Amino acid sequence: MSNQGRGIVMLAAVGMAAALAMGQAAGPVPATAGRVTASRPTATPSIGRGLERRAAGTRPWDVAHPTSRPAARSGAASRPATSQPAMLRMETTQFDFGKVWDTETVKHTFEMTNAGSQAVAIRDVHTSCGCTKPEAYERQVAPGATWKLPIEFIAKGRRGKTSKTITVTTDDPGSPQVVFLLEGEITPRFDMKPGTAVNFGSLQRDAAEQKTLNIINQGEQAVILKGAKVDTDQLRVSLREVEAGRKYDLEVQTVPPLKAAKIRGKITVETDLKEMPELVVYAHAYVQPRISLMPQILMVPESGEHDFRRRFVVKAAAGVTIHVKDVKVSNPKVETKLETVREGAEYQIWVTVPVGQSLPAGGDTITITTDDAEMPVLTATMRPYSSRMSRPLVAGASQPMRTLSSQPAVATMPVAPQAEAEPPQ
């Protein structure tokens, strides 16, 4: 052994003896009942650490100091570790405003108290409906202070039982979100029978129909309805008094010939009620076309074991006489056959797509020529679709394929629309 090696061994022995002496001076390590516990290692003198690094082949600057800590950033906002989190307390989170007229506006103030030792920030207030609006509120709640949130609920245009939520977002760890509930029942000031709108359903172009809507004042105060007007020349309206200040009849008539395919009229009734100077009612009608062609889009499978055969129906409205003169298809391989169901009124056109024949991606067009001066040409489209679609459950994975069966809906004859829900006025 060289002299340098002997020196290293002697220094290591001296370091170990010093560490042993320090451990004995500290006294015996207390024992835990039946359990071995891991404790922080006893600090080794610098000379011992240097020998250990040399023996391991490391340098002093390669070893991180376990006691080092990153410096805290100046200005960082954080709660002191010893402080308790703020606590928001509410006596109640619900308010029932009972029964109100649809002409009223409900106002209420929700409250929260900060029972903690530091301020709470209000980050956001969100309502479940545009009819519920928060008014001005404080953005901070000081310790011991009571925070107030004024709320305004507009009942106009609504009826029946309702409930709205107001969600308050805070930086309180114990209450990051507080949800308040506003509920009650809204009664319309005017009851309408048989419904809240006038629906004529499906009509012919020359139909002269009339509907009557009963309007009943449900409040104790008498209300005079002064007159009515409508925003379309396809309808005519008039107002008749049944009982002064209490009951009225709104009469709505169609004015033929009806031009639009869909009629939607806004009827405005003037009142002497300050809270509701105008009462709005809507009228609806669907007008059958002079000549109808159904379906206007026919979906054809891209592949099949048999010829694909379907029909188109051409039908004239009541009082209209037509004749189909010619039928053409943009694809010469598609066969057509014209049949008369009722002379001058209804025809059907059978189309056959031979097996193995594929339609172009944009589809094929069927052109029907009639002798009607207003609608001399009718067109429909045949479009291809894939009857079976396959794809792997996970892209690129080796898994069983999942097969989906697809059958697009074929257009059918139009039906009369139901009365639409109208936006609040």
CATH topology of the largest domain: Immunoglobulin-like
**Whole-number total of structural domains:** 3
| Strand-residue proportion | over 45%
Whole-number radius of gyration? 42 Å
The profile of the biggest β sheet is: 5 strands, mixed
What is the H level of CATH, i.e. the homologous superfamily of the largest domain?
Immunoglobulins
End-to-end gap: 103 Å
- Look at the helices and sheets and give the structural class: mainly beta
State the shape. flat
Order of helices and strands: HHEEEEEEEEEEEEEEEEEEEEEEEEEEE
Helical content (DSSP H or I, runs of 4+):
under 10%
CATH structural architecture of the largest domain = Sandwich
- State mean pLDDT (0 to 100 scale): 79
According to DSSP, the number of beta strands is 27
Quick one: CATH class of the largest domain? Mainly Beta
**Number of DSSP helices?**
2
Describe the protein's topology:
Blueprint: H1 3-25, H2 46-56, E1 88-89, E2 94-101, E3 105-114, E4 120-127, E5 132-134, E6 140-141, E7 146-154, E8 160-170, E9 177-187, E10 190-193, E11 198-203, E12 210-217, E13 225-230, E14 235-243, E15 247-254, E16 262-273, E17 276-287, E18 291-294, E19 297-301, E20 308-316, E21 324-329, E22 335-342, E23 346-353, E24 364-370, E25 377-385, E26 388-392, E27 401-405
Parallel strand pairs: 2-9, 11-17, 19-25
Antiparallel strand pairs: 1-3, 3-7, 4-6, 4-8, 5-7, 8-9, 10-12, 12-15, 13-16, 14-15, 16-17, 18-20, 20-23, 21-24, 22-23, 24-25, 26-27
